[in-house]
Amino acid sequence: MREVNAWTQLKHNRNWLGFWFMLPAMAFLIFFLAYPLGLGIWLSFTDTRIGRVGQFIGTENYEWLWDDAIFWLSVTNTLLYTFVASAFKFGIGLYLALLLNEHMPFKAMLRAMVLIPFIVPTVLSALAFWWIFDSQFSIISWSLKHLGLISQNINFLGDTTWARICVIFANVWRGVPFVAITLLAGLQTVSPSLYEAATLDGASRWQMFRHITYPLLTPIIAVVMTFSVLFTFTDFQLIWAMTRGGPVNATHLMATLSYQRAIIAGQLGEGAAISSAMIPFLLAAIMVSWFGLQRRKWQQGESND
Amino acid sequence: MTDLPASKVDLKAVISTPARADHSEGMSYLQSVPRRIVTLYLPLAIIVFILLFPFYWMALTSVKPDDQLLDLERYNPFWTWNPTFKHFHKLLFESYYPHWLWNTMYVAVCATVLSIFASVLAAYAIVRLRYKGANLVGGLIFLAYLVPPSILFIPLATVVFQYGLFDSPLALILTYPTILIPFSTWLLMGYFKTIPFELEECALIDGASRWQILIKIVLPLAIPGLISAFIFCFTLCWNEFIYALTFLQSTSNKTVPVAIVNEFVDGDIYRWGSLMAGALAGSLPLVILYAFFVEHYVSAMTGAVKE
Q: Which residues have CB under 8 Å from A110's CB, separation 6+?
């Protein structure tokens, strides 16, 4: 009986206590996340510049962007970058996870090494790629020349197509470890007895993957890929360190374009309009994540706690 | 107590799998050795090579003498026989590099400590106090995790300017928690859920306050979670770029990633050595930290996704 009493007493002030406990986190998130999010949308309807308070100008920024070819190029670039990079990250990441799940010597060390690209700050590894993709002293050009495959240096970051391929490659390089290690964690929850049963039934390796591994992995794939898509879509640092949007805007993403317009050119309102234009895309990705999570709970028979 | 870390066991097993008790590797004998070489070792070797090559290249470039860097005909570019520490010397004694490292460290530690403090309280309240609307707040925090810095930096720049924080480390210390709190709250909620409720009930009956319960019972049991959250937040801070690029201006105040991109990248054709030395020196602290806490990294990464 005492237990119940202690509980009922605590219930009185539980909401207040909860309020005090939430206060620091909420203060941060409201002042530096929710408020700026709203402010950003407001700024996109004004003509604010650096050092000048803006006037409300309605949707003029958006109308201006609507006719801006560079803006549309950045949208296309962002979509291309996101879809191609995410597809490769998923494919290679899943493949790597399956490989790492096998039994082999030095397994723990291999797994630890695979994650290093994810640990190192993006900008610093992007600089290494910048050097690897240098127009004159690229080690890749050198190797290909000595193998007799090409006769001229490849102008990796100076040619529009090559520049896109290079930034996508660098992004995939950095994203694969994250996808692989999280999917590996998912793979290890799959009971080995399922594979044993399938082997006894004469299933091929592909059939085992298709009918056991993949279905059991779907929920975690949904979540991981949503994160991956989200972070690729809003990427800034990799592009900024490698190409700054060049050559001729071929690698400008929406984030880099908004930085260039808002901070470098000083047009805060226009920059805010570009970053606000990213929100609908993000919402779409979040919806996918939401349904992915719901499905996961449903599959595991968890109650909605 | 024995079932306490049950849900985390599989996460740790990701990295360190000593002889596994279940017979999961029992079927590998069905494959012949040549077949395993082609289907397993070869692709794995290629992928690992590509993943690690940039670091080798970074390290090699940072110790190569200048003339060998740019002369690809007389010297084999893949190795050097006379390494030099000239670039590191330049980095440490002729630039602000030590300053930048210190700034990065200072900002990362402060922001991380602030965020962990706020997240521990928030996570405990959401999971255990279960005040009215706790689930809703939990969901909102998850959504906050999905708001990327690249749509916030413009309005945040105006906020930072208004508060007079522009070009001060405080601007970063106060804004980084917006990235870190959602992540670590979500991670810690997962850990707190695994702590048996009975322990807290006992303490309540003995007259402990909620604060005492948190400090004396919950936190000691959640230490692995705290370490995971701490090092992962630290890594995120170190990696953060766009806020630092936007909010800081003077050379001596910058953090390592921003400083390297802005201050080292000039027209000098011989810049590569010191640039790569700077990149290497900026990555090493994290790699060393990672080497010590591999398991915690993995559980942080997978934990936030799985919850």
A: A100, A104, B44, B48
